[in-house]
User: What shape does this take?
Amino acid sequence: MNTTENSKSDWLFEITPKNKFFSLNLKEVWQYRDLLLLFVKRDVVTVYKQTVLGPLWYLIQPLFTSITFTIIFNKVAGIDTGTVPPFLFNLAGITVWNYFTACLNGTSNTFASNAAIFGKVYFPRIIMPLSVVISNLLKFGIQFIIFVVFYIVYYLNGAAISINGATLFFPLLVALMGVLGLGLGMIISSLVTKYRDFTYLIGFGVQLLMYLSAVMYPMALIKEKLPSYGWLVEYNPLAYVIETSRYMLLDIGHISIFGLGYTFLVTLVVFLFGVLIFNKTEKSFIDTV
Amino acid sequence: MKDIILKAENISKQYRLGQVGTGTLSHDLNRWWHEIRGKENPYLKIGDTNDRSTKGESDYVWALQGINFEVERGEVLGIIGKNGAGKSTLLKILSRVTAPTTGNIKFGGRVASLLEVGTGFNGEMTGRENIYLNGAILGMTKKEIASKLDEIIEFSGCERYIDTPVKRYSSGMTVRLAFAVAAFLEPEILIIDEVLAVGDAEFQKKAIGKMQDISKKGGRTVLFVSHNMAAVKQLCSKAIVLEYGAVVFEGRTDDAIENYFQEVQLVKHGKRIEIINDSLGFFTKWYIKDNDSFIISSDQKENICFEFDSNGSMKNCELGLVIRNFEGKILFGCNSRDFEGDYFDVKKGKYIFNIQLVLPIIDGKYEIDIALVSNNNIIDQWVSETNLIVKNKFESVLDRKWRGELNLKTFFSYDELY
Assistant: This one.
C-alpha cells in the first residue's frame, strides 16, 4: 500500500453509528447561527401572510381568553384575586403560560413536521427547536406589551397594583420557562418519531396541565380549598413560575425560594435529558418517522 | 502519496421492512436489554441482502453491507447502480441525514449535500429571501451569500422575479433558482444526487458545465450519483458500481460503466446441451456476432447467429424466432420470411442463420426459442439454456413496475402557455 494514512487529527469530522452519549455541540450551532436567525425570520414573517388582521391575532387570543376566564372563574365561580383586578390577574397568567405552551407545542413536533427537510440536508437539528423558542419569544414580547398597556390603564384608574424589586428578575423567569418548554418539547419530539401516541397526549395534556399550574387561581387557594390534592399543584414546577411571575408583575402572592430552586432543578434535569434523547434520535429518526 | 479527503469504512445500513408499529416496542425493549448488558444488538445478525425482487425470510433487510471506499481531494467520484442498489441510502449516510448501522466515515473537509434542489424553499417568501434561507440551510453564512448574491441571481436567470414570492414561480424557475444557490456553495466536498434530472436541456448543459468548473477549477471533491451514464462519463474520473447494497466495482469510469452493463450468468456458451441426433437437422449453438458475451444493449443493432447441422435436404424451409421474458410472455417474434425474406432450401451440411434486429426492451434475461420448419413440419425447435441479456444505457427514474417492457429514449420539454 502506498497510501499514507492521515493521522487521526487530520480528519475534520467523522460519521459514526451513534452520537456521543451527550453532546450539545455549541460550536456547530454557532456556525449555523445565520440559519437560526433566518428560521426565526421565516416563522415570524410567514405567519401573517394572507391574513387581514396579521399580528393582531397574537393579541386577540390572550385578551379573549382572559375575558372568558374572568367571567367564568371570577364572576361565576367567585375565585378571589385579592386587590388585583381579575382581568389583569388572568392576563398575566395567560401571557406567561402561552409562552410555555407555544414553546412546547412548537418543539414537540420538530422531527415529524420537518421530516421533509431533515431527510434531504444536514444541519444541527437543534436549530429547529431553538428557532421555535426564539420566534415565540418575539410573540411573547408582543403579548407582554399588551399586558403592560392594560397594566398602565388599570394603574391610572387607581387599581392597587405595583411592582417590586423582584420584577427585575422577570426576564430570567421567562428564560427558565422557555428552557423548560424546549426540554419537554425535545423529549416529546423524539418519542413522537416512533410512537405517534404522544402527539395525542400532548394535545389534551397541555390543556389539563393548565388547570394544575395555578394560571387562573392563586396557589394558596388550592391549598386552602383542596388540602388533600394540593400537592398536585405544589409538585408542578410550572405553578411556581406562574405564581412567581404574578408576584413580580402584580406584587401579589408569595415568592418561594424553595419553589424556585425546585423549578430550576427540574428545568435543568428536563433540559439535559431532552438534549440527551434528542441527540440519540436525530441520528436516524428519518428511518422511523 | 494520496491525499484522502473522505474515507468510508465498512458502512452498513439495516432497515426494518413492513409497518413500523406493532412489535416495535418489544424489539426496542429487547435491543435495550441487550445493550445494557453490553451485548450486541440481536437484530444485527439477521437480515437479507437487498434484492427487492425476491421474497426474503426476515423482517430486516440490509440496504448496504460492508461498503469501503476512499476519495482523493479534487476527485469526482460517480456512484452508479440500478434502482434499489443502495445509492440513495449511501448518499443519505454520507450527507448525515441518517446514520449508518455499522461502520464510520471520516471527512477531511466541509461537506454540502444536494439530494434535492430547493430544500426548505418557502413559497410565501420572495426569491431573494429564499436564496438566503436555502443558502443557510446548505451551510453558507449570511455574509458568504450576500457576497455571491448577484452571481446567483444572474446564473438562475430569474432576475425579474427575484422579489416575487416563490409560490408564483413556474416549477422550472424554482429549480433554476435552487440550483443556482447550490452551484455557488463552496464546500470542500459536494454530494449531488440526480439533480440534473430536472430542467430543460439547455439548463442541464449549464448545470453540468458548472459542476465541471467546481471540480476542475475549484479543485473540489464531488460525489455524483446518477442514472445518466453520459453525465457520469463526462464528469467523473472514477466510479463505483453498487449492486444489492455492495460495491461490485471500483475504478475508472469507463470500466465501471462497462461493469454496470454486465451481468453474470451461469450458462455462458450458447451451445446445445442435449442433441437428438436422429432428426433431419438440429440447432447446435447460438451467439451474437462480434460479441463474446450474450449481453446486448437495447439501443444497438445486433446479429444473432444460429448454427444448424443438417442431415439431409429440406425444401421450403422457414426459421422462426421467439423471445420470451421470464414470465413466459412473448415479447417479440419474427420469421425468416418477414420483409424481403422467402422460403429457402437446406442441403446436408452446416449452416449459420443470421437474424439482424434491435431489441428496445427493458433490461433483464430473456429466453431464446428458435425453430426450423420445412413444408409446415417442425424439423427442430430449441429453447436455449443460455439466456440473452439485455442492458439499457438509460434507465428511467420510474419504479420498475411502471416501466413496462420497452426501453425507449424519451425527450421532455415544456413551455409556459400563460
